[in-house]
Amino acid sequence: MKQHKEPSQRQLRMGEEIRHALAFLLQRGDLRDPLLAGAMISVTEVRMSPDLKLATCFIAPPAAADAPARADILAALNRRAKYMRGRLAGALRGLKYMPELRFLADTSFDNFAKIDALLRSPAVARDLRPAAGNEPPAPADSDTGTEK
User: Fold this and answer.
1) What secondary structure, in 3-state letters, does the chain show?
2) In the predicted model, what is the mean pLDDT of residues 44-72?
3) How far apart are the first and last CA of the chain?
4) What is the pTM assigned to this prediction?
5) Which of 87, 107, 97, 112 is nearest to 48 (CA)?
6) Which end of the chain is more exposed for a tag (fewer CB within 10 A), N or C?
7) Domain 9-126, CATH 3.30.300.20 — does that match?
8) What are the tens digits of pLDDT across the range 83-133?
9) How far is CA 95 from the centre of its chain?
10) What are the structural domain ranges in the chain?
């Protein structure tokens, strides 16, 4: 049975450094790809492998983009990964070697939206309302000790 270990401080620090440098590189827009030129791409997280040789970059493409457009943006980023790796190597000089970059879609925001919609559904709201006769007592007034 494989156990999942928490990332080390070094993995977390390197992931954040790469995330910041990658966000700056994407913001400058010098990737020479027409699909990426006008896209507002957010780098939400970079997870490093334990040996620091692989950086998995989670990307949140524009919210207005539909699923095929998101897939095209991810494909374009993965095509330009070697170029970005070279550009980042110049920006992050303290590294022994620059990790390989892989880009994946960040689906956590979609999951949050599904949970939020579920919590706002009428069935859940009905279950959260207090039943008749089981209402909690009114809070007591702290100065007089009487109920409000």
Assistant:
1) CCCCCCCCHHHHHHHHHHHHHHHHHHHHCCCCCHHHHCCCCEEEEEEECCCCCEEEEEEECCCCCCHHHHHHHHHHHHHCHHHHHHHHHHHCCCCCCCCEEEEEECCHHHHHHHHHHHHCCHHHHHHHCCCCCCCCCCCECCCCCCEC
2) 84
3) 58
4) 0.69
5) 97
6) N
7) yes
8) 999 999 888 877 788 999 999 988 776 666 677 777 777 877 777 776 555
9) 24
10) 9-126
What is the pLDDT, as a whole number, of residue 65? 62
**Residue 57 confidence (pLDDT):** 95
Q: If 0-12 CB within 10 Å is exposed, 13-18 middle and 19+ buried, where does residue 50 land?
A: exposed
Q: For residues 76 and 38, which has the higher predicted lDDT (pLDDT)? A: 76
CA–CA dist 69, 73 (Å, integer): 6
List the structure tokens of 3.
Answer: 């156990």
